[in-house]
Structure to design on (103 residues):
């Protein structure tokens, strides 16, 4: 919120939510500005980037596993799958061409 207010001071706050999907839908249907994860926003053709697509916020991602279950094959398979999905989203976001993005 602070980042948006600092970079777009002329805009007013019209909607707040702790659900990213709700923020994305508000931005897409009402033309609102929203600070969204690349993987979520790039999947919706109704959304366009402002500011040339620069990364403005980075967050760590944690995957917690119960110590007694971490060596179970099924848990290992899920951990590997989550790592692959996150890695592919990250690589796709970095390699995506700068098209359909507003300056």
């Amino acid at each position: 919120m602070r980042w948006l207010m600092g970079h777009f001071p002329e805009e007013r706050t019209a909607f707040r939510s702790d659900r990213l999907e709700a923020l994305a839908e508000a931005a897409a249907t009402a033309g609102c500005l929203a600070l969204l994860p690349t993987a979520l926003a790039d999947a919706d053709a109704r959304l366009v980037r402002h500011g040339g697509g620069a990364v403005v916020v980075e967050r760590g991602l944690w995957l917690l596993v119960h110590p007694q279950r971490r060596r179970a094959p099924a848990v290992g398979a899920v951990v590997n799958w989550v790592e692959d999905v996150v890695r592919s989203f990250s690589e796709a976001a970095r390699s995506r061409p700068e098209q359909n993005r507003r300056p």
